[in-house]
Amino acid sequence: MNIVVSNLNKKHKLNKKFIKEIVADILKILKLSRNTKLDIVFLSDRAIEPLNRLYKKEKRATDVLSFDLGSCGQILISSDMALKNSRVFNTSFENELVLYVIHGILHISGYDDQKLKDKSRMFKKQASILERLCAKVNLSKVLTRR
Length: 146
Hints:
Blueprint: E1 2-7, H1 16-29, E2 37-43, H2 45-56, E3 64-68, E4 73-78, H3 79-88, H4 93-108, H5 116-136
Parallel strand pairs: 1-2, 2-4
Antiparallel strand pairs: 3-4
């Protein structure tokens, strides 16, 4: 597996090595090919908003944008949005970040959340994967502490 994790949002220090391990676990859970190439980029709301406008025609920041590029998948994640939503939904920032990674990978592997039925199926799958990961590892390692 070729997994590249980049953090372009310097407000949040991330443990890229641990995130790669989490991504590898997610890919194994989903039984995706060992030849999977995945690029995950963490951005600010300010950086993801113009991309959301360009690709989704929405004039606001978003949590996750996913692109299946054939031989490679790319997932763009707003870590700012993850922090905000962790407060709104009363979850940890780390769990919210991992949830966005799972969400992006599910999109690349064919899941959709546009229709209610599809959204329910996708959200059940991402909750199941998050639960399996939480039982296995301490997600607090997603962040690097100062």
